[in-house]
Design goal:
The complex is a heterodimer of chains A (148) and B (140). By secondary structure, chain A is of the alpha+beta class. Chain A is built from three helices and five strands. Chain B is elongated. The chains are: A alpha+beta (148), B alpha+beta (140).
């Protein structure tokens, strides 16, 4: 099916608070074989000017994947998830994500289009502290192959 | 030593980075990221959906590639923007060597406020696996 252009701008309720833990950051860095001590050692992070250990630049995907599920599962979007592949991903960091952050994710449909029979859906996820400080904006473009 | 804006010009090349991705790495990344899509660990299902075999998470490839930038910049917090477009899957064979990823980067533009844009070329199996990979880095 072709995605409805009227979906653009649709926003979903904010997620529950996600508390960023030092161990989760270290686990993610290890999965990327990233040896940088600013991901593990609070003293090294402070020496580099950060209040606590910071996350690798792609860590926000941990939160944005889950937050974007509300869009994929929206029956009015009607995306055929069995045919979906990840087309593009973008991160805009307002500041590094760090241990101790209590983040809320808000998903919005940024763009829909159909090219050569493929539906393309871009979801923006805004990550902010529970006090409202913007931390990171992610944009994920999913392609549903041959559904339009 | 981190590069300062004055040391960098359009065309400045980053040190080449070579990474290996094995099936064990895919399992580890699945757990760390929460992305348990079966095509990243189940050969049977991967082939059923038309893939040549188990493939790496696109975000694992992207996360490994941007290490070339953070290692060069000297601070992972200096990456203010990172964008990738996935063009080809990275097929990860069921052996001890896995797939090889070669990452090359070059400064493509000097922006305002000491920021530079770095364009990455990411190759596996002789093919570009990301058709676009660029980072904006705040230097100095």
């Amino acid at each position: 099916m072709t995605l409805d252009a009227g979906l653009v701008g649709r926003s979903y309720p904010p997620s529950a608070v996600y508390e960023v833990g030092r161990e989760k950051i270290a686990e993610f860095a290890t999965a990327l074989a990233d040896p940088d001590p600013v991901h593990r050692d609070p003293a090294a992070a402070r020496a580099a000017g950060h209040p606590d250990v910071i996350a690798p630049p792609t860590f926000a995907i941990v939160l944005s994947l889950g937050a974007a599920d509300v869009v994929v599962e929206d029956p009015e979007v009607g995306l055929d998830y069995s045919r979906v592949v990840h087309g593009e991903q973008r991160f805009t960091h307002h500041r590094p994500i760090r241990a101790g952050d209590r983040l809320v994710a808000t998903a919005t449909i940024d763009a829909v289009k159909t090219v050569a029979g493929n539906d393309m859906l871009t979801t923006r996820v805004d990550l902010a502290t529970e006090d409202g400080e913007p931390v990171c904006t992610t944009r994920s473009m999913l392609v549903a192959r041959g559904t339009a | 030593m981190s590069p300062r804006p004055a040391d960098v010009e359009v065309g400045t090349e980053l040190p080449e980075q070579i990474s290996r991705v094995t099936r064990a790495d895919l399992v580890r990344y699945a757990g760390a990221s929460g992305d348990f899509n079966v095509i990243h660990w189940n050969e049977r299902v991967a082939r059923e959906v038309g893939l040549p075999g188990v493939i790496a998470h696109g975000m694992l490839t992207a996360g490994l590639a941007v290490r070339a930038v953070t290692a060069w910049a000297g601070d992972p917090g200096a990456v203010v923007e990172y964008q990738v477009r996935f063009s080809r899957p990275v097929v990860v064979p069921d052996d001890d060597l896995g797939a090889e990823l070669t990452v090359r980067g070059r400064v493509a533009a000097l922006l305002e406020d000491g920021r530079v844009r770095v364009d990455l070329t990411v190759i596996s199996g002789g093919e570009k696996v990301l058709s676009l990979a660029r980072a904006v880095v705040a230097l100095g």
